[in-house]
Amino acid sequence: MAKSSADDAELRRACATAVAASGARGEDVAFSIRVAKGRGIFEKLGRLAKPRVLALTVKQSSRGDANKAFLRVLKYSSGAVLEPAKLYKLKHLTKVEVISNDPSGCTFVLGFDNLRSQSVAPPQWTMRNIDDRNRLLFCILNMCKEILSYLPKVVGIDIVELALWAKENTLTIDNQVIMSTQDGQETSVATQTERKVTVTVENDLVSQEKEEEEDMEALLGTYVMGIGEADAFSERLKQELVALEAANVYQLLESEPLIEEVLQGLDAASATVDDMDEWLRIFNLKLRHMREDIASIESRNNGLEMQSVNNKALMEELDKLLERLRIPQEFAASLTGGSFEESRMLKNVEACEWLTGAIRSLEVPNLDPSYVNMRAVREKKAELEKLKTTFVRRASEFLRNYFSSLVDFMISDKSYFSQSLDKSCLGPLRKAYCHSLNLLLRREAREFANELRASTKAPKNPAVWLEGSNGSGHNGSSADTSTVSDAYSKMLTIFIPLLVDESSFFAHFMCFEVPALVPSGSPNVNKSKSGGNDADDDLGLMDPDGNDLKPDSTSAELGTLNEALQELLDGIQEDFYAVVDWAYKIDPLRCISMHGITERYLSGQKADAAGFVRKLLDDLESRISVQFSRFIDEACHQIERNERNVRQTGILAYIPRFAVLASRMEQYIQGQSRDLIDKAYTKLVSTMFSTLEKIAQSDPKTADIVLIENYAAFQNSLYDLANVVPTLAKFYHQASESYELACTRHISSLIYLQFERLFQFNRKVEELTYTIAAEEIPFQLGLSKTDLRRVLKSSLSGIDKSIGAMYRRLQKTLTSDELFPSLWDKCKKEFLDKYESFVQMVSRIYANEPIMSVAEMKEILASF
């Protein structure tokens, strides 16, 4: 027999490697073989199918369960390496069919019961020869028998022939086939499973043949015949067969009457059964109709019963709702037309309590939400609201008239009222009055402040004054925020007089031992007796004749009054603070206007009429100052942030922005005290100058240029304001001095850079004039006439080019073209002064030595 691929150990090892690479653990390759081709889509399209390898694997169970057997299909990848393509479980194998259309007999189909889809064809393979086919089928059948304990159905192949082939082609394999490896070890390439492949399957396939042979031997054993008596044996069998048939015919003839009788009985029984079946059908139809009628009756009864229960529950709910909606006649009469006499006051209170409960009972928490939109509920709720409005209107009118008459009586006859009043009740009465009126005043102030903020149109984005680059960012100068300070002024205009009047009325109404409360600037107050004006006295105390009361007689009562006023008006300041904070967020510069408005009220007469009001205004002024100081601190911080930025050149962003800021601040002063603004100017400009010096020192090469340009920009932008604002004038002069110093340093550096040897020679000569005589200087080392001529030649031979280079250098270093003409004029003047001093030194020390005159130098400079 030709060598098969099933004996290829290398193929088996490659299959084992591919199975292990696919992630399957514990699977051993028991058998592997190459196939000629398989049926697939490529064969239908007329293309050749790729080569495949079939491998039978066994997975050993580690938990004592039964082992599992698989049929794996492997294909060759682009690198000629085997990789898994498909996997079939042998436990689903139900049929092995050899295709009869293939003359070679090498094609077979494996049927699996888990391939449910009709579109998926069972796997079909064509082996290279009959031996390879028998090898694979024997191995599959053996694994099914040994591992799964069953054999699939075999179609298209003779089992006897398969068993005979197995006997003839039993693998003669020793216990191990030894192959040498690189390590010198020995590896087994055949297993005990291969050696048992024919034994087990052969026994199962030929078991049926053995049984037939045994039956034949038993039959032959009943006859004593020789081997040559076959004809006699055949004749004897024919005679016995004829006798057996005759016996059967005789028996049939004898049993015919019995058969007829049985048939007649069966016909009668069949007719009876048919009649009974007809009766049962009729009864079943009647019973079905009865069941349907009963079910219909029960359904109607259940519906009627449910409707009856629902109607009863609905009637109960409607009775409860009607009870809620009913208005008692006596309560309606009390609410709409009853009097407010003391005898009927108890009935009025009961009617009010009932009305409150009735209105609450018709609201969602106390009433089912499904009833809220009912027409009757809505109408009754509107009726109750009408009753409430009517009663509130009548009660308010009665209380207004009653309190007006009571207050008029108390004011007109206060002495009688004070005498009849229990002094011990004054304390609780004052406290209750303060508490009640405090809530009212605070609510009014809060609502008014909220309305002011809501009705005031202000810019949405706050102003950013001193941050960002020079060409971008919002400078806040175009937005009109005058409505913010107007809102604050309106708040003070409405409430400050109200608080003063409330304080005066409270002192008079609550019977304090103070005859009158008047402003400290009132003409009726006799200030001569008090020893002068006292700025801390907020309450002027007078007797009925208009004279001041002595402090020692009313100090206790005055202290009690101040405490009561504090309790009466405490908390209202929070609404004023809220308006101030709101205005600060919109435009911090409006603190200047608000500060001036607060000053005017502090200096007014009404502000002196109550101690709490003056304290409130003082606190408002302090809060405004704190907010404005916070704005100034943030502005200074924004200025200082420029110091940490990347090296800057040109005019810094905060220089022109400060001019805009100062102009806006001056617009808001409006003739008020300048202390707040001057302090802000001082802090801002000091921070600006110090930051400018730090930025300039960060780069010594451009330090003077940065100082020159920024100090010049500061002077140009604040020229008009410095003429009218003394504080800004002081900083204007400081900037001018710093500007001149920076110009002098920069011009000197330019001149010495271009004419260093010329003026260094002059300096050495000037220094020696203090120690030796003038006529001895030309004989000093490095200061001879020859040295002078050499210096003059190197410095003045190309004077036009040197001055042109100095001109271009100055023009290049400046970023502002506006400063160049004035700086160049300063540079020419400084150079002429130095050159004139040099010419005078030469004529004095080196007599008759030729040198360019000052006039000629001036003409050369004039050409630039």
Automatic annotation (TrEMBL):
Q: Does the keyword NADP apply?
A: no
Under the heading Pfam families, the entry gives: Sec3-PIP2_bind, Sec3_C-term, Sec3_CC
Q: Which UniProt keywords apply?
A: Coiled coil, Exocytosis, Transport
Q: Which residues form a coiled coil?
A: 287-324
Q: Where is this region: Disordered?
A: 522-552
A single GO molecular-function term is: phosphatidylinositol-4,5-bisphosphate binding
Recorded protein name is: Exocyst complex component SEC3A
Similarity comment: family membership: Belongs to the SEC3 family.
